[in-house]
Amino acid sequence: MIRLAIALAALAALAVVPMFVSEYELGLMIGMATYVALASAWALFSGHTRYISLATVAFYGTGAYTVAVLNETLPYPVVILCAGLIGAAMALLVGLSTLRLSGIYFVIFTFGLAELVRQLITWYEVTITGTLGRYIFLDLSARDIYWQMLALVAIAIGLTAWINRSRLGLALRAIGDDEVVAAHSGIHLARTKLFAFTISATLITLVGAVASPRWVYVEPLIVFNPTVSFLTVIMALLGGANRLWGPLVGAIPLFLLFEWLSVNFPDTYPIFLGLMFIAVVFVLPNGLLAGFDDLRARFGRTKP
Amino acid sequence: MTLLKVDKAARNFGGLKAVDQVSFEMESGTIMGLLGPNGSGKTTLLNLISGFLAPSSGKIIFNGQNLAGARVDKIARAGIARTFQLVRILPSLTLLENVMLPAVFGHQAHWGKEADRVAREALEKTGLGDRAGAHAGDLNYIDQKRLELARALAAEPELLLLDEWLAGLNPTELQEGIRLISSLSGSGITIIMVEHIMEAVRALCPRCAVMNAGKLIADGETSQVLSDKSVIAAYLGDAEDA
């Protein structure tokens, strides 16, 4: 209860922040909220099951592209609804065909999926509609986008908290440890994984849809940038993907770090991305929060 | 009442007949030892019953329902639980969570306080009651075996498949294990136990079935089965070979 109160108070405080910051700072806040939402939504499925998905940008880009295609013909709330439905349908389709794969095969498939979606859209735009880029003209201020993104952050973390306490959470953790034991305990593997994957992917699609008006001009190469998938994974892993607040703890410092790097070292910053990836996996395989717990346990023991 | 009827069950791996036209029946509440030399198909037979492998042909009728080839989780929910020859626990979960799993998703599908009660009872029965909050990954081998049994019990199964659950125990633990299984068997659970420890088989199983090269070569009262010529030949080789 106290935790819930603190979380709600923090959310309220974050909601009034736009009144006090500059346009540039608000942009930073939006970027940060975007990655917190992405990492939290990603961890909702991958955190407990340990299925490392690199399909983040496939859904994120699909959300953005849905807005780009529909923004002139439908009212904004309907566009967002469509993006969510398209994301859910795509997740069901992808889930049904991939969740039988395990380990590295799943990773490779999801990475390939992002490329496939990008190529399909490029082909469609070039050969059918004859245009490659699209414009998004929506009457939304940066504040509107920030509030919508904040709502997505709240939904992603709230849903994760709810799942962690539910039967679904227990099932996902069991699947992450040993699928054979999970099945022998009576867990319907395919249905459980598909359900969680679809929730996660739908949220990611919505994040892409909400973020898209910031670009104004959209084309496949921009919205299906694989860096988004990698960043999401390393942010969630840095904080601790199986912790409720892990993705948030990982996303904020990494987002700021990469923002700074991309401004100061625009040409070499992908190198830092790679180095960070390696460092996270080697130094903090269970994430920062687990690292803190270990430290606390160690100091607790040495105290007289 | 017949709980389990295995009817001409077979499983081939390429040209190898791992389980070859095996048929037997079990009454509810009975316990049977499943014996046989290494590689004779005992574990494969258990895998067919628990659904880990689908039979190539034949029927496995449980409570009047043919479960041959059904999904593992469906078979688990129907009331069949098992332990594994090589212990399989969920290391990042606590003992209580490990055991809660089949209580929640298994035969009876409990949730909340009821699931907690069933899980704690199963831990108590196997002597792990005071360590419910520990992580399963921190247990030693014997306690992992206990945890596996506790997990199978928390499913509240009608049929329990034990795959060499007593193997690797020291003499004191073995006596304890035998007492535990005998108390389970007295509580009405039907048990099939694959076992190499003859002392345990004689103490626990009034009935034994013996497999060799995928075939069921003997099935009956334990002392008779153990003195059967074909059984002795399967273990020690034919007299002509000697």
Structure description:
Chain A has 304 residues and is mostly helical. Chain A has 14 helices and two strands. Chain A has one domain (2-225). Chain A has a two-stranded antiparallel ribbon with strand order 1-2. Chain B has helices at residues 42-50, 72-78, 95-105, 113-125, 141-154, 171-186, 198-204, 222-227, 229-236; strands at residues 2-13, 16-27, 31-35, 57-62, 65-66, 80-82, 159-163, 190-194, 207-212, 215-221. The radius of gyration of chain B is 18 Å and the shape is globular. With 242 residues, chain B is an alpha/beta fold. A six-stranded mixed β-sheet of chain B has the order 6-7-8-3-9-10, with helices on both faces. A four-stranded antiparallel β-sheet of chain B has the order 2-1-4-5, with helices on one face. Helices cover 38% and strands 26% of the residues of chain B. In chain B, a hairpin with a 2-residue loop joins strand 4 and strand 5 (65-66). The interface between A and B is medium-sized, with 18 and 27 residues.
Strand coverage percent of chain A: under 5%
CATH topology of the largest domain in chain B: Rossmann fold
Sheet with most strands: strand arrangement of chain B: 6-7-8-3-9-10
Q: Strand-and-helix sequence of chain B, N→C?
A: EEEHEEHEHHHEHEHEEHH
* Overall mean confidence score, pLDDT of chain A: 90
Shape descriptor of chain A reads: globular
Proportion in helices of chain A: over 70%
Query: Main beta sheet of chain B: strand number and arrangement?
Result: 6 strands, mixed
Work out the number of β strands of chain B.
10
Structural class of chain A: mainly alpha
Helix content of chain B: 25-40%
The domain count of chain A comes to: 1
**pLDDT < 50 runs, ≥5 residues of chain A:** none
Mean pLDDT of chain B: 91
How many angstroms does the end-to-end distance of chain B come to? 44 Å
State the name of the first-level CATH class of the largest domain in chain B: Alpha Beta
Q: Largest interface by residue count?
A: A-B, 18 and 27 residues
Overall strand count of chain A: 2
